[in-house]
Sequence to fold (511 residues):
Amino acid sequence: MQWWRDAVFYQVYVPSFTDSDGDGIGDLQGIRGRLGYLELLGVDALWLSPIYASPMVDNGYDITDHRAVDPVWGDLDAVDELIADAHAHGIRVTVDLVPNHTSDQHSWFRAALASPTGSPERDRYHFRPGQGVGGAEPPNSWRSVFGGSAWTREPARDEGPGEWFLHLFSPAQPDLNWTNLEVWADLDKTLRFWLDRGVDGFRIDAAHGMCKQLDGTPPSSDDDPRFDQDAVHDVHRMIRATLDHYPERVAIGAVGVRNATRFARYVRQDELHLAVDTQLAASRFDAEEVRAAIEDCLNAVGSVGAAASWLLSDHDVSRPASRYGAGPVGTARARAMALVQLALPGAAYLYNGDELGLPDADLPDEARRDAVWHHGEDSRDGCRVPQPWEADLPAYGFTTGEPWLPIPDDYAVLGAAEQLEDTGSTLSLYRRALELRREHPGFQAPPSPGPALEWFGAPPGCLAFRRTGTTLVCALNTSPAPVPLPPGDPLLVSGPLDDGMLPPDTAVWLA
Ligand code: NOJ
Fold:
């Protein structure tokens, strides 16, 4: 059963979901205590941000042991309990996997620093001599995604000038060398370790990374020697081959590739099951842009027979309720885009807190924690602030201690408990949408070979589509004036209709 083809995944950003032990940081037992909520919301699967041993320079994306749980989250027993309980609630559990890099505190990297130039220990990473007098300049001009050079010089050594190591993210995240077979063997071991524990799959971080065009490797990507090199597809074939030994497990790639043809290569039959589209999240609240993003993704994945998968936000980008505009307009637009996302054929990813309509938090500089911030780029902390559960509890029920990021006062009216009681809340909209998506006959489509979606004519600034083979129509109005509804009975509206018309900043489902 290809359950993942139309599953709704819920991203739990573990530090910010629920803290069970009062240290102010979310954890595995905290998630376990919210499974009832997640079942009520109606999601099919979780995606947990990294739960592995980590010095937390990048909130767990800097890993010292891919097969151990960091004590801040819990332990292996807590993982087993969470998986068992989630399954009992009918929810599958996928976990983040970070194959591009390790922490600089990983035993491999420490061994590399302690070993001579040219040693097997160094070969697991990318060490190179510097350029210029005394090797004082980086080996090349590559930039880190987090800003600054992608190379850092190792601490001074007795035996010579010392080398530079490559890190596409922070200097605390040295990139692994994917031409080294030990690196491959270790990932295979990690996959089996978690699959044997019962995880239902992996979200693969920077799935277009890993292989680089260094040292005269022939170019294979259009314009960026750091990413999307042909060799990375061999890594995905290896991952898939391992997963295929386990029934019903899924590999999902965070594939930051804009070229549709190259994006599609990641979801060929023997590679990833799903690649997360990022174009929808990058689109403005503009019908033309939204439609173009949808078409690009559907054409790409359709060309290789894969399912699409849609994401509006995650822990790296501004939340929809802030991104599309401030205040009530942003909220209205975020609600409208949620209906668009959830009407599209394919899988969907919800980011925890978006179901509550949370805006980004405006944090004072001294409260910010993001590694990116320390490298001079915009901080991602605003979208990572802990989830409010109940207005009357300290820290809104997130923790009994001090939350790791301060929770703004305006989150008080957005608590889950209060929203569950309010039929007009964003949470109630999400619950109803997920229920209809699961149960309404308008969503059930017999398999058909043609395009997954049919576009209807729509007024300027609007779009309307139907899932092929179904009666479900979704219409979105991004124009400044109300427009007539397409034919059909309204099933769900993201905001009130205006005299039977679809107002600006609103979407509707009809059947
Ligand atoms: C992408 C992740 O989503 C992001 O949060 C992280 O900082 C980088 N990869 C590095 O692992």
The mean pLDDT is 95. The pocket of 1-deoxynojirimycin is lined by residues 58, 61, 98, 169, 205-206, 315-316 (CB under 6 Å).
